[in-house]
Every structure is written in structure tokens, then in C-alpha cells.
Write a structure and sequence with these properties.
Two copies of one chain form a homodimer.
Chain A (H helix, E strand, L loop, with lengths): L5 H10 L2 H11 L3 E2 H8 L3 H13 L3 E6 L2 E6 L5 H33 L1
Antiparallel strand pairs in A: 1-3, 2-3
Chain lengths: 113, 113
């Protein structure tokens, strides 16, 4: 595992904002226009567009022009690096617990003999 | 799911930093003192202590005094909210795909009759 993974840092940074997370959840339900997405946030269009542009830069969403409107859609596999990183931490932790278990078993067996 | 979850935002923010992620990976292997943790980062102790204090504030690590040294350990379940959030996004996305599948099957069946 790379110790410094700038793409992963950017992904965590983008997900640290509740507005961006709520936009992502909305897009998991299906594609939406910028105006559709702005509605529930209560934010002005330029603010929402800045959020969307950050999300597109890290690959979390894709946007495409449909006539005069811009339609946004989720890129679900973009969350994979976050999931992989969490799984890696758990694997390191569990392998440590296994070693501790093995050590305790060994000590217990030795004390029996 | 709460739309605004400040604890989750703080967790993502803390994980957005590569030094803090590398400290967490080190602690997954077992408890360590602040000096142990500072070594590989190449950072000064006060800087590392600021990182540790942020990580402790969101519950990712716990620290305890052992004589004159402070020992840090990981709190592995602290990553659960991040995992849960990612699982929720996938569930929404997959349920949408299932509905699309069902719709396509329905249209195909109707076109056969």
C-alpha cells in the first residue's frame, strides 16, 4: 500500500462535506440535472456547481450535456479506493489479533505441560 | 440516514490526511508511543501530537499514560460509520439497478406477446 496516496486524500476530502455526500446519495438513485441537485441543498447554483466540479475532478460523478442542460450521474466504483483502504486496515488489525491468539494458545499449552 | 452527520464529516476530514492515515495503519499493527509514531513521519513531535489529538477527538485512536510515556492504540470500530455510509450508497445504487432490470424484463415480455 502506498503510504502517500494523493488520490485517496482528495477522495476523503471531497466526502468530508455533507452537501457533497447528500448530492452523491441523490445521484445513487439516478442521474439528475444541476438544477434538480441544487433544489434540496438550498444553495445557489454557482455554489452547487463548485461542489459538482470537485466531485467530478476526483471521479465520483460524471457530467454530460443533454441539449442545454447538464446531467450528472454517479460513478459508483469511484468509492472503491475508500472501501479497499478500510478493508486493508481491518486486515492488518485482524492479522495482529490472530497472532495474539496464537501466542496466548502457545503460552497456555506450555503452562499445561 | 441523517443528511448532515457532523461526526461522519469529521471522520472523513481526519482520514483525508496521508500522515494520519499512515499513523492509523501503523497502529493497526499494535499500540505505539508518540515517539515511535513520529519516527517514520519525519515530522516534529508537536506536529505529530496535533495529528494524534485530532484522531483521538473523532474516536479513531485512544491514548493512555504508561508511566512517563503516552501509548496510542487504534479503535478499529471507529471506521464503521465510513464503511456503513459506503454500503448505504451501494445499496441505493443496486436497488436502482434492480428496478431498471425489472423494468427492462417487463418491456421485453410485453413486446413478446
Amino acid at each position: 500500500m502506498a503510504k502517500h496516496d494523493p488520490a485517496l486524500s482528495r477522495l476523503f476530502h471531497v466526502l468530508a462535506d455533507p452537501t457533497r455526500r447528500s448530492i452523491l446519495t441523490r445521484l445513487a438513485e439516478g442521474p439528475a440535472t444541476v438544477t434538480d441537485l441544487a433544489g434540496p441543498t438550498g444553495l445557489r447554483l454557482p455554489t452547487v456547481m463548485r461542489h459538482l466540479s470537485l466531485m467530478e475532478a476526483v471521479g465520483l460523478i460524471a457530467t454530460a450535456k443533454d441539449g442545454r442542460v447538464r446531467v450528472c450521474s454517479i460513478v459508483p466504483e469511484a468509492l472503491d479506493p475508500v472501501r479497499t483502504w478500510i478493508d486493508e486496515q481491518r486486515a492488518i488489525w485482524e492479522s495482529r489479533l490472530d497472532r495474539l491468539d496464537a501466542f496466548v494458545m502457545k503460552v497456555m499449552k506450555e503452562s499445561e505441560t
